[in-house]
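Batch manifest, entry 17 of 40.
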Amino acid sequence: PILKMVEPMLPGPPAVTRLLQALGRFPRKGCYLYGGKWMAEPVFPEGMKANGLLGLSSNQQFMGLPADATAKPGDYAFLRPTQSEAVLQQFGSIAVFSGGRIADRWPALPMA
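Output type: structure tokens
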């Protein structure tokens, strides 16, 4: 889930953040996700991207968003895994996202 929405600022002089935002190197809007260091590609909300300037955390991960993003705390972010299916049992059922909503839930395959 999305924990909080922010207008991100880098540590240091605000002018550095504004310059990087003007150059398109740092987002004007962002969110923090529960957990982090996911081995996965962002899918939803549209335009969500990891940002290396704030670094990674296992507790909460910052993700940049487009300026017109309408996400809010409590909404769900979706990521497409890039890692082995061996870790899927840690997460319970898989939410099938289709047509802008969760359409079904699939159980993860058991370990053989």
